[in-house]
Amino acid sequence: MIKLKNLTCLYDDKLILENVNLQIINHLTILGANGSGKSTLAKAICNLIEFNGEITLGTKNIKHLSLLQKAKKISYIPAKLESYDTHIKVQEFVLLGRFPYKKSFFDYSEEDKKMVKEALEFLNISHLSDHTIHSLSSGEQQLTLIAVALTQQSQVIIFDEPTANLDPHNSKIIAQHIKSLKQKHQIILITHDLNLASYMHTPIIFIKKTQAKLYEKDFFNNSNLENLYGVEFESLAVKYE
User: Fold this and answer.
1) Where are the beta strands (DSSP E) in the chain?
2) How far is the C-alpha of 209 from the C-alpha of 18, rounded, in Å?
3) What is the pLDDT of residues 124-181, one digit of tens each?
4) Could you tell me the CA-to-CA distances from 121 to 129, 136, 176 in Å, in that order?
5) How is residue 129 annotated by DSSP?
6) Main-chain phi, psi angles of 55, to 5 degrees
7) How many Å apart are CA 206 and CA 237, to the nearest integer?
8) Which residues partner with 20 through β-bridges?
9) Which residues neighbour 127 within 8 Å (Cβ) at sequence distance 6 or greater?
10) CB-based contacts of 74: which residues, under 8 Å, 6+ apart?
11) Could you tell me whether strands 156-160 and 186-190 are parallel, antiparallel, or unpaired per DSSP bridges?
């Protein structure tokens, strides 16, 4: 369980989130307009940014965990790979997910390498093992990021706009993989895609005007959506099945 108590976040002195109090018991989808604070909330949960208030993972305060302890508990997957060694191969990059478990000054174990192989097979990208990250398409890079999270074996995986840069075909592939991960991991999804949000079948947090409201059910009805987004809606057509 993830618990947020009086969480407040600022960016360049601008208030983004104010006194947010939430208990995230299981899977969750985070929605809201551009700039509302969706990524800010996710990065705060991972302790990647400064914040006021308290965030606990299980019984542990996130600020009291070491980097290696946090890596074993939570993974953050951005929408796009922004920085990487252009010459690193996929299998080498995914192996970095095992770093929290690596013994100092020793090479990665055969068990680590086996886990990389299994992650690539699970995501159907084994054929990309020897390809460089630089040579991959956006969809293949996103699958590679998921493979890193799988080998990292963290309890919680946060996906930040995983389909933002993808075409409909690759969006469907990514959506199905994310949903399948719900069986073994706690998934937190940030997205603008209401079809994807509906497909995930999780409680919804909607962020608006520095506040985060939890919807356990009855989020996806036209009246509610029109009130939150300020535009007219027709019935959603789920496209990821």
Assistant:
1) 2-11, 14-24, 28-32, 52-57, 60-61, 74-77, 156-160, 186-190, 204-208, 211-215
2) 9
3) 999 999 999 989 998 899 899 999 999 999 999 999 999 888 888 888 989 999 999 9
4) 10, 17, 15
5) T
6) -125, 125
7) 20
8) 7
9) none
10) 45, 46, 57, 154, 155, 156, 157, 158
11) parallel
Read off the pLDDT of residues 206-237 as tens digits, 9 standing for 90 and up: 999 999 999 988 898 888 888 888 888 776 65
Tens digits of residue pLDDT in 46-70: 999 999 999 998 889 999 999 888 8
Tell which CATH classification among 3.40.50.2000, 3.40.50.150, 3.40.50.300, 3.30.70.100 matches the domain 2-229: 3.40.50.300
Q: Mapping DSSP to helix (H, G, I), strand (E, B) and coil, where does residue 38 land?
A: helix
How is 219-239 classified by DSSP, letter by letter?
-SSHHHHHHHHSS--------
- Please give the Cα distance from 1 to 116 (Å, whole number): 27
How are strands ordered across the β-sheet holding 60-61?
14-24, 2-11, 52-57, 60-61
Every domain of the chain and the residues it spans: 2-229
